[in-house]
Design a protein that fits this description.
The complex is a heterodimer of chains A (544) and B (268). Chain A contains nine helices and 31 strands. By secondary structure, chain A is an alpha+beta fold. Chain A folds into four domains: 3-117, Sandwich (Immunoglobulin-like), CATH 2.60.40.10; 129-253, Immunoglobulin-like (Sandwich), CATH 2.60.40; 268-406, Immunoglobulin-like (Sandwich); 458-543, no CATH class. Chain A is elongated. Chain B contains nine helices and seven strands, in the order αααααααααβββββββ. The radius of gyration of chain B is 23 Å and the shape is globular. In chain B, 45% of the residues are buried. Classes of the chains: A alpha+beta (544), B alpha+beta (268). The interface between A and B is large, with 53 and 76 residues.
Chain lengths: 544, 268
């Protein structure tokens, strides 16, 4: 496989995983107000700026971008955040987006967000202040409402402490924690920092309820004019404490209407949707299919369980513990519950899983509504005939507790196994053979190394000869001749004894001259004055 | 080098060659057994699956299926023994554990094999897996040492075992030690007789200490002729006839229950 193809294959998941998200600091603005609008590119790289669709009445100015990397559970997420300053114009409700961006040659789109530009409240404080409110002042019993409080400040603040009121007639929605965030906005040319708290609560007490004031106590630094030279060099910061409070609230919690209440109403309040997906459309008798039922909405799902299936449906159903999650985005409460229902058919052939029907009270419509899934068709193949059995082994999860609680039948053995000896004795040939092979390899390497170490090293021998020349002229000359031959043999890579004048010729003129001078010196002739120095030089060259 | 290859061949080829001798017949017997089990012929399933096990298919799936077939044949004690063997070969299989749990709840004595507290190899790795892991770790450690020696040869110095070799070989020895300890433990056994009297001495002459029923799991401490000394989790001990027990050692022979129609006699 070519490297280019490999590179493209490596980039493909990144391009497919890239996504674009649009986020706004606050969904409610006033005419002339400027807030931050972010386009976030998650797990992708782009060379251009996103194209942002804006309706008339809103203006956006690009103000920069930043990159961050988040590592969670060894999973790295790279986020490129493009920031715009969004300025509201005329009052109205607008849809922003989608933003578009080309990532790795593929165009991706973001979500759209809705923003409301409300006319200015003439009574609203122009400077610092606190406002509070509920998402609705007339909730129904059991409805999730969001208590929101906003602290606006134009001054620098050292410490701000909130005092939240008692929410009489409401309890906390446990599935999600309240949010607290801070953002900056520009209104009439003045920068305002807004600290916002959102808290989801559930209405549990009928009737008229009074909610007290929300307060913020903040310390604001005061810079005084220096009164002495010492004050000029050692500036002292003094603070003043200031408190702001919101107006008290009045709420009326309405009871759920008795008229038209369906028999299958179990207390859900909110607008919900439900969707069912089977893990497989075909199953062997005695095995199970997992039906994943996802319920999504804006009401609480705490304690909610799926309604049971009819007894004559030709199947058995076992519910797992559902996964519930909730979020608070832009002051809106959203919840999702995922139920996993193990469906065990009781007979072969075609089987239809009846729809899952959920009835709730919709506060927006003020009426009871029902939603249901589409029926799911299953094909049940022949299986083990000895009764109904359930296996969770294929799901990679140890469900033995679930199985124990069901206790219907024994669980079947896998039918497709390749049986072979899996006892300890079957593993021993490999368990002993592998280390033995590796040990032999190690022994072989050690023995080879030892043999090489015992053989004389030509370089070491040459060095020792150079360092230990005899003092007598005759033996010294013999030693020098041997040094020359060994040095030449080292360079040529041949044994020293077989060298003659022709053999040393490839080593150059100096080698041939040395050979001739040594030959002459052996018989008492030739120039021997610098012979030793030349041989030493030749040998040193060979040792390099 | 050629000598080394020859030695490796001598070590590895017999082990590679030894495995598939019975593999085909074991596989065929297993498939026939599962097929018979699905068609409801439980006696045929027991026979075929026992044949699969005895002909080299000592595999968790084979013991699992054999346990199911025995359970369907109303041989609950034998089924428990087969499942216990399957669990020993596949300790992470939740289905086998669920079947054992069911058998335990259905047994008269509700005596389950005593479990050791804390971490134990046999809860995570089957002996087969642990032995292979130990072999691979030690082989890797030795190979790393060989590579290190080969690389350091030109430099003329260096130690034989680097830290990586020490860690790998140490882990390998640790795992091998765990395997050896598990293998050295007293074997478990399951009572397969409807009722078996545990006595103070082997044979009918001993005092009856307690009575165990089919499905009770015991630890077999020693054997003496036709009897075995067993112990219970509450430390009671007694001699039981060997015919009333089936070992939970997956490598041992698996005695099948008497055919239907033959009344089992209470073991003395």
């Amino acid at each position: 496989m070519s490297p280019i193809l490999l590179m493209l294959l490596a980039l493909l998941p990144a391009a497919l995983a890239a996504r674009l998200e649009l986020a706004l600091d606050t969904p409610t603005l006033q005419p002339g107000q400027t807030v931050g609008l972010q386009v976030q590119l998650v797990d992708g790289r782009a060379r251009e700026l996103p194209q942002l669709e804006l309706p008339a009445g809103l203006e956006a100015r690009y103000s920069g971008q930043s990159t961050s990397t988040v590592v969670v559970n060894f999973d790295t997420t790279r986020i490129v955040r493009y920031t715009y300053a969004l300025t509201a114009g005329a009052p109205g409700t607008y849809a922003i987006g989608p933003a578009r961006l080309t990532v790795d040659g593929r165009s991706i789109e973001s979500n759209t967000i809705e923003v409301t530009v409300a006319p200015r409240d003439p009574d609203a404080p122009s400077g610092s202040g606190v406002t509070a409110g509920l998402s609705t002042n007339e909730p129904y019993l059991g409805q999730v409402v969001v208590f929101g409080a906003e602290y606006r400040r134009v001054d620098q603040v050292l410490d701000a402490r909130w005092t939240l009121p008692e929410l009489d007639g409401f309890i906390d929605e446990k599935t999600v924690e309240g949010t607290r965030r801070e953002y900056a906005t520009v209104l009439d040319g003045q920068q305002v920092v807004i600290e916002e708290i959102n808290l989801p609560v559930v209405a549990v007490g009928e009737g008229r309820r009074a909610i007290g004031r929300t307060g913020v106590t903040a310390q604001i630094p005061v810079r005084r004019r220096p009164r002495s030279r010492r004050d000029m060099f050692f500036e002292r910061t003094e603070v003043r404490t200031e408190t702001w409070t919101s107006e008290p609230l009045e709420v009326t919690v309405r009871p759920l209407p008795e008229d038209g209440r369906p028999a299958d109403f179990t207390g859900l309040v909110g607008r919900f949707s439900v969707k069912a997906t089977p893990s497989s459309r075909s199953v062997a008798l005695g095995e199970s299919v997992t039906l994943v039922v996802k319920v999504e909405g804006d009401g609480t799902l705490s304690g909610f369980q799926l309604p049971p299936l009819p007894e004559d449906a030709g199947l058995r159903a076992y519910d797992d513990e559902p996964e519930r999650s909730a979020s608070l985005d832009g002051g809106r409460f959203r919840t999702v519950a995922t139920f996993r229902r193990a469906i065990v058919p009781e007979q072969e052939g075609s089987l239809e899983i009846p729809p899952v029907r959920i009835t709730s009270f919709d506060p927006t419509a003020g009426a009871y509504v029902s939603v249901e899934t589409d029926p799911v068709a299953l094909e049940v193949r022949p299986g083990e005939q000895t009764g109904v059995v359930t296996s969770y082994a294929g799901e990679g999860v140890d469900r033995r507790r679930d199985v124990e609680s069901l206790g219907d039948d024994i669980l079947p053995a896998p039918g497709q196994a390749r049986v072979a000896d899996r006892t300890l004795s079957a593993a021993l040939p490999f368990a002993l053979g592998l280390p033995a092979a590796a040990g032999l390899a190690l022994a072989g390497v050690c023995l080879t190394g030892r043999r090489r170490r015992t053989e004389p090293d030509a370089r070491s021998a040459l060095r020792s000869r150079l360092a230990d020349l005899p003092s007598e002229p005759g033996p010294r000359l013999q030693a020098l001749e041997r040094i020359f031959r060994e040095a030449a043999a080292l360079r040529l890579g041949v044994p020293a004894p077989g060298l003659d004048r022709a053999a040393v010729a490839p080593l150059g003129v100096e080698a041939v001259a040395l050979y001739a001078d040594l030959d002459a010196a052996r018989y008492g002739g030739g120039a021997t004055a610098d012979l030793e120095a030349r041989i030493r030089s030749f040998a040193q060259e060979s040792l390099r | 080098m050629n000598r080394l290859v020859f030695l490796l061949t001598l070590v590895l080829v017999p082990s590679l060659h030894a495995r598939p001798v019975h593999a085909r017949s074991a596989q065929e017997a297993y498939e026939a057994g599962v097929s018979a089990l699905r068609s409801g012929d439980h006696d045929a399933a027991v026979t075929a699956l026992a044949e699969a096990v005895e002909s080299g298919g000592r595999h968790p799936a084979a013991y699992h299926a054999l346990g199911n077939a025995l359970y369907r044949s109303e041989a609950r004690g034998h089924a428990t023994a087969a499942w216990r063997r399957a669990a020993a070969l596949a300790p992470r299989d939740g289905d086998i554990e669920a079947n054992l749990d069911r058998a335990h709840r259905e047994s008269v004595d509700r005596i389950e094999a005593s479990s050791t507290s804390g971490f134990s190899w046999h809860r995570v790795l089957a002996p087969f897996e642990a032995a292979l892991l130990a072999g691979v770790l030690i082989a890797l450690g030795l190979a790393a040492a060989a590579l290190r020696t080969h690389r350091s040869r030109g430099r003329g110095r260096g130690t034989l075992f680097g830290s990586e070799s020490v860690v790998l070989i140490g882990l390998g020895v640790l795992v091998a030690g765990g395997v050896a300890v598990s293998a050295g433990r007293p074997a478990g056994a399951v009572v397969v007789a409807d009722a078996a009297s545990a006595r103070s001495t082997p044979g009918a002459g001993g005092v009856e200490l307690f009575v165990l029923h089919a499905g009770a799991e015991v630890v077999q401490l020693e054997e003496s002729g036709t009897h075995a000394l067993v112990s219970l989790p509450d430390e009671r001990k007694g001699w039981l006839p060997l015919e009333a027990l089936v070992s939970t050692d997956p490598a041992g022979p698996f005695p099948l229950p008497a055919p239907r129609g033959e009344e089992p006699t209470p073991a003395k």
